[in-house]
From TrEMBL, chains A, B:
This is Prephenate dehydrogenase. GO terms for molecular function: NAD+ binding; prephenate dehydrogenase (NAD+) activity; prephenate dehydrogenase (NADP+) activity. Its EC number is 1.3.1.12. Keywords: Amino-acid biosynthesis, Aromatic amino acid biosynthesis, NAD, Oxidoreductase, Tyrosine biosynthesis. Residues 286-353 form the ACT domain. Pfam families: PDH_C, PDH_N. It comes from the Bacteria.
Length: 353, 353
């Protein structure tokens, strides 16, 4: 029998709040929405994410989904307003905990953080499926009651996510390394492109696009995230600075062994990232196929690929509107690549081995 | 009437050499292959990329496609061996030019560099379509004859690429910024993952994967590239170091304005990269669709998407083998997103707005 029966109050009807509302409604729970912006509440409500909160509503669980700078104040307000369990979905966990550590009722607070897309924002970008299959960090503090922890884990599962329990400190160290540092490194790289000559940028390939993509994220949000996790971020930035100095020395002095060691450490790092869904990394291979630019050709390709019995892990399309043929890259497990190639070739596709 | 009639000699039957051979053969030109590895020549030849070079062959154009460290020696050898025009396809252009600047016949040498995938290697990865729609830098030196330049440009066009003329110096500055620096920055980031605790890496999302992907490239090749373009790379690494110091100071002192400026410069940098095929960047939007894990569902999705008349620019699949539903992200021009969503919804797809 589930502990989580609602109502669930969602404070902040942006991308995450609206998505949580939609997921809870999908599960039949009552959802109460509030936001500084009445427009956001109307929009989220119109999408089916819940109804506007009324003064006499009594929530079972409050989900605080506001920008990092306001987490502490909103969590404290929610703890004082009722006896509900309170969680938040902010990107950092130690700072908001510090802010509410001495509030009455803090045993009812359990932080959390779904690892779901943040390049879009606002209630219109919300989706009940946003959390499907994603890790959702649950970060109890020492005083959190088991019942409160269970309720927050149940919310994560109800949203389709996979709860991962960490202490707030460990969480912040983890995201400093896997999210905040990559963002800042991408920002430093992208900054070197901002005033580059256009004739140089004309040689940009997929590599530089991938390395810099996340740097396009909202600066106002990232300013809060980085500031809120300053200690962990500074530790890692210091490590990068040390390695950058080693790199500069190695290149300047032509010490190729040292340069090679750094490059090899980078390869090891890419291999340390677990498979997309937490499993071990499986060796993948790209299969390239030329696809004529006619309606239905992509559909035919996927039909033929499906018929070969190979599981397609990811797809990239390189399609220039000015050319009659696009190049489609199908990412498959290494073991299945030859079978897929043979199957596609036997059906008349031009593959590139 | 074309100047390029062949034979084309390809020195080095790896990924690039084999691909050029395949493209030239597709156009009906005779192709002469050589490689330190007789096995590579046999493989490339078996794929239809040309035939083994004989001592009495007289090429019209020699394409040197060997690792960066050996470019100078092989270009010089080719210039001495016949009166053919000579080009190379290495990632750096000033160092090989310096090596051959005083060779007799250097007026017949014109450097070049196709901006095509290098994460795969060897003749088996070769493809006549590798260069389709890609920029191909052509880098004449002051003494290059117009006829030699024309011949190399014609090779690029014959391979399906778009020739971009740059001086060797400018080319090396351009790729230092758009290729070598992104690689090294990704390496520094990936290095911070190499010995990270697995429970931290469990929170890895798409961002850190994208930032670090290129760091998985062959260290032996990148050692040569970075060393060969050391001056340009060092200039940019110095800029990154300066900006890293500013970033560390801003985070350590809590100077949020300064941090915000750096983050905004990163956003500007991502916007400075031209569109995939040299055109202006068009605003794109992601459309998310839940796809049941049954054979044929992807094919049905692309059939329905095609029927909506919307051009799909790229696709990502987030598919967990353990779950019955995958999430497919379709990247389309912003203007067409609503039409695609409506069309897919009317056909019963679960979309995520």
């Amino acid at each position: 029998m589930p502990d989580l029966v609602g109502p669930v109050e969602v404070v902040g009807a942006g991308l995450l709040g609206t998505s949580i509302g939609l997921a809870c409604r999908r599960a039949g729970l009552e959802v109460l929405l509030s936001d500084l912006s009445a427009e956001n509440v109307r929009t989220a409500s119109g999408l089916g994410a819940g109804r506007a909160r009324r003064a006499d509503d009594v929530p079972q669980l409050v989900v605080v989904a506001v920008p990092p700078d306001h987490l502490g104040a909103e969590i404290a307000r929610a703890l004082a307003a009722s006896d509900a369990v309170v969680t938040d979905v902010g990107s950092i966990k130690t700072e908001p905990l510090r802010a509410v550590a001495h509030e009455p009722g803090v045993e009812r607070y359990v932080g959390s953080h779904p690892m779901a897309g943040s390049e879009r924002s606002g209630p219109l970008a919300g989706s009940a499926a946003l959390f499907d299959g994603r890790p959702w960090a649950v970060t109890p503090h020492r005083g959190s009651t088991p019942g409160a922890v269970r309720l927050v884990e149940e919310l994560a599962v109800l949203c389709g996510a996979v709860p991962v329990t960490l202490t707030p400190d460990e969480h912040d160290l983890a995201v400093a390394r896997t999210s905040h540092l990559p963002h800042l490194v991408a920002v430093l790289m992208a900054g070197r492109l901002a005033d580059a000559p256009p004739e140089h940028l004309a040689l940009s390939g997929q590599g530089v696009r991938d390395v810099t993509r996340v740097a396009g994220g909202d600066p106002a949000l990232w300013e809060q995230i980085v500031t809120g996790n300053a200690d962990a971020v500074l530790g890692l930035l210091g490590e990068v600075r040390g390695q950058l100095d080693v790199l500069i020395d190695a290149v300047a002095s032509g010490t190729r062994d040292r340069l090679g060691e750094l490059l090899a450490l980078g390869v090891a790092g890419t291999r340390a990232i677990p498979g997309k869904h937490g499993g071990p990394t499986r060796p993948m291979r790209s299969v390239f196929v030329s696809v004529p630019d006619h309606p239905g050709e992509l559909a035919r390709l996927f039909a033929d690929a499906g018929a070969s019995g190979t599981n397609i892990e990811d797809v990239h399309i390189d399609h220039d509107p000015g050319r009659p043929v696009g190049l489609v890259e199908l990412l498959v497990e290494e073991d299945g690549a030859e079978q897929l190639l043979g199957s596609l070739e036997s059906r008349g596709w031009v593959t590139h081995r």
